[in-house]
Write a structure and sequence with these properties.
Its main location: cytoplasm. It is found in: Cytoplasm. This is Probable transcriptional regulatory protein J2S13_003195. The protein is of the alpha+beta class. The chain has 8 helices and 8 strands, in the order H-H-H-H-E-E-H-E-E-H-E-E-H-E-H-E. It folds into 3 domains: 2-72, Orthogonal Bundle (Arc Repressor Mutant, subunit A), CATH 1.10.10.200; 80-129 and 202-233, Alpha-Beta Plaits (2-Layer Sandwich); 131-201, Alpha-Beta Plaits (2-Layer Sandwich), CATH 3.30.70.980. It has helices at residues 2-13, 19-36, 45-56, 61-72, 103-115, 144-153, 177-186, 209-224, and strands spanning 80-87, 93-100, 120-122, 131-139, 160-164, 167-172, 194-201, 228-233. Strand 1 (80-87) and strand 2 form a beta hairpin.
Length: 239
């Protein structure tokens, strides 16, 4: 599990050098979630989930409020949720999730990003079967045993609980995400270092220095695309 947490940390660390891009992507995701249901997180689980994740990225309140107000205002801006799958250098696998109001533009940009950086697009299902959708929640100030005990008392099932880098990391089935958070909230824990449902690779690959450089450029190019919300992969990054 350690390598999985390392890749999550690597993704979260990227926000420090691209906060404006991260905030813009959250603004779009919050707008879509608010428009698809009630613009109230108490009655809209999808919106509540996005807002919980936004907190771990320190998304400013004015960006959240603006996106929700835009949804309340009846904007006719619509987005399609798309998933692309592809391959990078030497057996690396990539999943790209996007929100777009122009499917042809997004498909062209994603395809170009793969093609120009040593990769190629795959068909739907060619990569995703090698990943598991997983709820990941991280917190500090508790031991793994303490967290396990309070989750057991709340009758919440999880896949694994580990202590890594002075944090406790909980891995659970996606449908247990809210139950885990509720149990932690009831125990007085409301601040999380990570709180999201992600795609974790079943197996990871290590690339040569040259291939890793190409792969990092591929990931950077994909994440810089305006329509791309999330990028998942199976490459081991150094600690």
């Amino acid at each position: 599990m350690g390598r999985k947490w390392n890749n999550i940390k690597e993704k979260k660390a990227a926000k420090d050098k691209s906060t404006s891009r991260i905030y813009a992507k959250f603004g779009r995701e919050i707008y879509v979630a608010a428009k698809q249901g009630e613009p109230d997180p108490e009655s809209n689980q999808a919106l509540k989930f996005v807002l919980e994740r936004a907190k771990t990225y320190s998304v400013p309140k004015h960006i959240i409020d603006r996106a929700i107000e835009k949804a309340k205002g009846g904007s006719d801006e619509n987005y399609d949720e798309l998933r692309y799958e592809g391959f990078g250098p030497n057996g690396s696998m990539v999943i790209v999730d996007a929100l777009t109001n122009n499917v042809n533009r997004t498909a062209s940009e994603v395809r170009a990003a793969f093609g120009k950086n040593g990769g190629n697009m795959g068909v739907s299902g060619s990569v995703a079967y090698m990943f598991d959708q997983t709820a990941v929640i991280g917190l500090e100030g508790k031991t793994a045993d303490e967290v396990l005990e309070l989750l057991m008392e709340a009758d919440v099932d999880v896949r694994d609980i580990l202590e890594e880098d002075e944090a406790v990391i909980i891995y659970a089935d996606p449908d247990q995400f809210q139950a885990v958070q509720d149990a932690l909230n009831q125990a007085g824990i409301s601040e999380f270092t990570v709180a999201e449902i992600t795609m974790l690779a079943q197996n990871y690959v290590t690339l040569s220095e040259d291939d890793l450089a190409k792969f990092e450029k591929l990931i950077d190019t994909l994440e810089d695309l305006e329509d791309v919300q999330q990028v998942y992969h199976n490459v081991e990054f150094d600690e």
